[in-house]
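Open question from group meeting: does this chain pack into something compact, or does most of it stay loose? Before anyone orders reagents, we agreed to write out a predicted structure and look at it together. Recording both the input and the output here so the notebook holds the full record.
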Amino acid sequence: MATTKIGADMHPWVSSLMGGVLIGISAVLLMASMGRIAGISGIASSLLTGARDRSWRVVFLVGLVAGPWLLFLLQGESAIGVPVVSWPWMAAAGLLVGFGTRLGSGCTSGHGVCGVARLSRRSLLATALFVAAGMATVFVIRHLLGGLGA
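Structure tokens returned:
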């Protein structure tokens, strides 16, 4: 019996829209049920700094990691793909993202999803800067440095 991959015949725009809707629903549910912003960097850093309300934070982060694993178990691949750069580059990128979230007082999920939805001027500016920095990074790596493959 042939297995059908989830979303295999789905147009990329539809699957992207569905993903966005699910992110929005999770952000709304977290705000409605707990009065919390779904900012991943804030949720994760609060675990490291000893937040008293740890249980929901752990469950939230486990859910983020469990999603691709569940997809892998259901269809044999996670659709994320293998890394295209080496582990040292990914570690450096992760540290820079962590530094940026501290510098920007939040991450793309906190500012870009929750803050923009609230029409926060600070979040609108932060999100514009995130996008501009991402575009500049891609330009420099692909066109000036010739790519940084594995």
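Observations to bring back to the group:
Residues 121-144 form the longest helix (24 residues).
The CA atoms of residues 6 and 144 lie 38 Å apart.
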